[in-house]
Specification:
The protein is of the alpha+beta class. It has three domains: 85 residues, Nuclear Transport Factor 2, Chain: A (Roll), CATH 3.10.450; 142 residues, Nuclear Transport Factor 2, Chain: A (Roll), CATH 3.10.450.350; 114 residues, Glucose Permease (Domain IIA). The protein contains seven helices and 21 strands. A hairpin with a 2-residue loop joins strand 20 and strand 21.
Length: 440
């Protein structure tokens, strides 16, 4: 075999050269190899570092005198404006000095149709050059969706920008000593989450009358973040509310079609067939009482409903799905609306100021749909809603009647739901037990 040394001129090494080669210890050759690698790395990194320094230095240098630009020559930032009720896109463009012809070109772009659906709260932005010519336009429909239009030689090109927020699950709990609202805020919940919680349990708990000191709640809910900043709330995933010694648990479940509802751990709907109260009220001015003295007639006349004091014009919601069977005047009741719910139930709303547009006999309505407005028509001492609940034609106390459940979980999905519900309840309890032992 013929060997060549690193410093060889190409001649084969003789035996003396080989013996010299073998004299060096193995560790010396390892050290020599590592040194060579270090030198090679330096030779590679030094030019890279010099290039980085050169670029950084060039970025920090002021613009040479021959390339200076005045602020007037620089494209300005977006001029954002919130859309107010009554605003039209044509007027907003005119206020910016942009011609209707330019607006028309915008509407002819790929996403131009979205400009026909301008809503209060949307935000619009303009970019104009020094000659007041529109170079770009921006429409923000929400924090998560916007549309940008950029001028080209052939008109405008558009892009739909969608941002996906990060979803963070949050646990909260509280024991009520004053009100649900104050305790919820103290627990770190937003107004929106507190209202959602009240809505979920609103069929079982009257939050105006039934709340007692010591009632408590716990829940896992979602919060939305963009770039590390909270931008909104998501859904409540599982929640528990203890009221008067009764415990209510709700689990959010989404079916295969994407429709979500809240159910009990056994699969019954938290949503009852009727709302407990059909109006946002300040107080109950008169309860169900078969021996009440009428405030105007001063005679004993049975009060077969509940009176909710509320300001004139307050929206009244249908207590359940049904069909309008009466909408007109009825003696001392003044303006009255009666809704039939299935074959057994009817609800009556009296002393109304007005019916909502489109509400008439034969009209089908949905639970929670606004159907009328609070007034003082008929024999009424002030604006309020008189509300009656009838079962098979018999008056029942709306505050005490047991409300029927809405449709339960679909049988085909029940097994899957029961497993999911068990997991969600365990997750909620793990937080509760964790906080309990942490406080010991």
């Amino acid at each position: 075999m013929v060997c060549y040394s690193p410093k060889s001129t190409g001649k084969p090494m003789n035996n003396q050269d080989l013996s010299t080669f073998n004299i060096l210890p193995k560790r010396h050759w390892i050290a020599l190899g590592l040194t060579s690698l270090f030198v090679a790395a330096l030779l590679i990194l030094i030019p890279v570092q010099q290039e980085l320094e050169r670029r950084t230095f060039a970025y920090e240098l002021p613009v040479p005198a021959t390339q200076t630009s005045s602020p007037a020559d620089t494209l300005p930032d977006w001029t954002m404006k919130a859309v107010k009720p009554g605003d039209t896109l044509a007027q907003l463009f005119q206020n910016q000095g942009v011609s209707p012809q330019v607006l028309y070109k915008l509407t002819q772009s790929k996403h131009g149709k979205v400009l026909n659906k301008l809503n209060p709260g949307d935000k619009i932005g303009f970019q104009l050059d020094t000659g007041k010519k529109l170079t770009a336009f921006r429409l923000e429909k929400s924090l998560f969706e916007s549309f940008e239009f950029s001028a080209t030689d052939k008109g405008f090109e558009s892009h739909n920008i969608l941002l996906e927020p990060d979803i963070v699950e949050t646990f909260a709990q509280g024991t009520i000593d004053s009100s649900l609202f104050e305790t919820g805020l103290d627990s770190g919940m937003s107004n929106n989450v507190i209202m959602k919680l009240a809505t979920i349990f609103g069929w079982d708990v009257d939050f105006a009358l039934d709340i007692r000191q010591g009632d408590n709640f716990s829940l896992i809910y979602q919060e939305k973040y963009l770039e590390g900043k909270k931008v909104g709330d998501g859904d409540i995933l599982v929640a528990r509310f203890e009221n008067h010694g009764n415990t209510y648990t709700a689990i959010r479940f989404e079916d295969a079609k994407g429709y979500s509802q809240y159910f009990t751990p056994k699969g019954l709907s938290m949503r009852k067939a009727f709302l407990r109260t059909p109006v946002d009220f300040t107080r109950i001015s008169s309860r169900f009482n078969l021996s009440r003295k009428h405030p105007i007639l001063h005679k004993i006349r049975a009060h077969k409903g509940v009176d909710y004091a509320a300001s004139r014009g307050t929206p009244i919601k249908s207590a359940g799905d049904g069909k309008v069977i009466f909408a007109g005047r009825k003696g001392g009741y003044g303006r009255v609306l009666i809704i039939q719910h299935g074959t057994r139930y009817t609800t009556l709303y009296a002393h109304l100021k007005a019916f909502r547009r489109g509400i008439r006999v034969g009209k089908r309505v949905k639970q929670g749909q606004v159907v009328a407005y609070v007034g003082s028509s008929g024999l009424a001492s002030g604006p309020h809603l008189h509300y009656e609940f009838r079962v098979n034609g018999r008056h029942r106390d709306p505050l005490r009647v047991k409300l029927p459940h809405a449709k339960p979980i679909d049988k085909k999905q029940k097994e899957h739901f029961l497993h999911y519900a068990q997991v969600m309840v365990m997750r909620l309890e793990s937080h509760l037990f964790g906080d309990y032992f942490a406080s010991r």
